[in-house]
Design brief:
alpha/beta; Rossmann fold; 461 residues; single chain; 2 domains; 14 helices; Metallo-beta-lactamase, Chain A; binds zinc ion; 22 strands
């Protein structure tokens, strides 16, 4: 058995691991490197293995940093199946097509800039056509904890990872030379105490573990405190007569906020008639997918579905898919909640809403996710007095709130507990984190051999 790391190695994004066992080559995830534009060059680099020789791809979940290079893999010769859970297949199709549109738009923009200075621009990493072609390879869906035979003597079992809808950790077991070897790939690990999803599951044992480490150096604020902080901020902004703008990621966070708002209304913390706008075509499509898988949720949410209630439904919820409807929201001066992408305000409809609301002291902006340095969200969070939006200087007079406890990733104590639940672990490979964070997690994990693989590094197991 041979394991090699071709992404998210001493890095947070671009997950891509190759396992060679029982005569087969299995790829676990094929994600995009994300962050700055410069990373696009890294995405176009060779994968570090023969793409045509891969027998099967297993996808842990639909986030772009786990599935975003699948069209490129197909374009470069991969012809086999992409195996994942049914909700992940639907969400990944949405995410991959959206990524292809963005790749084409960025390439067009670069080509215009390059032609002005007589330079040559890079083509898109993949086009919408490439992406559409690769979607046909999502030919096999698996259920949780049902072993799937990849080949005689080689099985993959998906365990609920509790990170986003459909997310999984994958156990691969191979019979070689009369004995069974196993590796457990964490994918991204969720939190145990979240309202929507079930807690992460693990097999009783595994010989090797490949685990993520995004928040391996810190613990989150308790979830209940974050919900409280969120509802208090919304109520305070409404009492001043302003709008609430929430830059939000389309997958999971938007739906979780709808669920929290619904609870706030039921507990009479918020007025029932508050208009809530989900101004993101991708969040709208994702919410429709979420509603098709009632059994994937926590018992409380599944019960709501069973009794015919919509956990994401609110009395005055408006989904705005059209551009014209989105622009019409600008006419509302106060008393509305506006959720729109992108989460880091690097683009998308939320930038327009910030332009209309940031300078008004009665309004408020609530950030609910990570914001990378250099992004508009980060500048506002860091206390900028004014920011440039579409070439115009906008004063920041709205109240700014940052709520950190809504992360979809396990924190350090949960990562340690997750690994402790399995026995017989000989080697732990730490991936998917910033390098200093990985070392802090390695120091906190007290059992067995621990490796922090470099990009393209291989190990015999
Ligand atoms: Zn993820």
């Amino acid at each position: 058995m041979r394991l090699s790391f071709h992404g998210a190695a001493q890095d947070v994004t671009g997950s891509c691991h190759l396992l060679e066992a029982a005569g087969k080559r299995v790829l676990i995830d094929c994600g995009l490197h994300q962050g700055s534009r410069a990373l696009n060059l890294e995405n176009a680099e060779p994968f570090g293995f023969d793409t045509a020789a891969i027998d099967c791809v297993l996808l842990t979940h639909a986030h772009l940093d786990h599935c975003g290079r699948l069209p490129l893999l197909a374009k470069r010769g991969y012809k086999g199946p992409i195996v994942t859970t049914a909700p992940s297949r639907e969400l990944a199709n949405l995410v991959i097509l959206d990524s292809a549109y963005l790749q084409e738009a960025d390439a067009e923009h670069d080509a215009r800039t390059a032609s002005r200075i007589g330079a040559k621009a890079a083509p898109p990493l993949y086009t919408v056509l490439d992406a559409t072609n690769s979607l046909h390879q999502f030919s096999q869906c698996v259920g949780y904890e049902q072993p799937y035979e990849l080949a005689p003597g080689l099985t993959a079992t998906f365990f609920n990872a509790g990170h986003i809808l459909g997310s999984a950790s994958v156990l691969i077991e191979a019979e070689e030379g009369g004995r069974t070897r196993s590796v457990f790939f964490s994918g991204d690990i969720g939190n145990a105490d979240r309202p929507l999803l079930q807690p992460p599951r693990t097999p009783p044992s595994a010989q090797a573990v490949v685990m993520e480490s995004t928040y391996g150096d810190r613990n989150h604020r308790p979830y209940g405190d974050s919900v409280e902080e969120f509802l208090t901020a919304v109520a305070a902004i409404f009492s001043r007569g302003g709008n609430v703008v929430i830059p939000t990621f389309a997958l999971e966070r938007a739906q979780e906020l709808l669920y929290i708002l619904r609870q706030g209304i039921e507990a009479s913390r918020l007025p029932a008639a508050i208009p809530v706008f989900v101004d993101s075509p991708m969040a709208i499509s994702a919410t429709a997918i979420f509603e098709r898988y009632p059994d994937c949720y926590s018992p409380a949410v599944a019960e709501l579905f069973r009794s015919g209630k919509d956990p994401f439904g609110l009395p005055a919820l408006h989904f705005t898919r059209d551009r014209a409807e989105s622009v019409a929201i600008n006419q509302i001066n106060g008393g509305a909640i506006i959720m729109a992408g992108s989460g880091m305000a690097t683009g998308g409809r939320v930038v327009h809403h910030l332009r209309h609301n940031l300078a008004r002291p009665e309004c408020g902006v609530i950030f609910v996710g990570y914001a990378a340095p250099g992004t508009l969200a980060r500048r506002i969070i860091d206390g900028a007095k004014h920011v440039a939006i579409f070439g115009e200087q906008i004063q920041v007079r709205a109240s700014i709130h940052t709520i950190n406890g809504f992360s979809a990733h396990a924190d350090q104590s949960e990562l340690i507990a997750w690994r402790r639940r399995m026995s017989g672990i000989e080697t732990t490979f730490i991936v998917h984190g910033e390098e200093p964070v990985m070392h802090k997690l390695a120091a906190a994990l007290d059992q067995g051999r621990i490796e922090i693989p470099a990009l393209h590094q291989s190990y015999e197991l």
